[in-house]
Amino acid sequence: MTTTGEILIALLEGERMSSEIAGLVGVTDQHVSRLLPRLVYGGLIESRFPDTRRLSRLTPKGREAAEHLAAVKELIEAVSA
Prior knowledge:
By secondary structure, the protein is an alpha+beta fold. It has one domain (3-80): Arc Repressor Mutant, subunit A (Orthogonal Bundle). The protein has helices spanning 3-10, 18-25, 29-41, 60-80, and strands at 16-17, 45-48, 55-58. A three-stranded antiparallel sheet has the order 1-3-2. A hairpin with a 6-residue loop joins strand 2 (45-48) and strand 3. It is globular and about 45 Å long.
């Protein structure tokens, strides 16, 4: 699974800070911060900036993609077990 796919899956449970996403995905906060604008540009997530934090959440298009990715990830893990 790509890092961008893992980010989308991490956002299935709701809005998260980039540092939370980084911890869940297992990459640096800086790496996530570089990828989030691409996901915004693709219409998959929305970000807002209260205070100095970046909070991101899925758009409807992003939720659909994340649900498909999560299902594929589950199938792959089942076959690999």
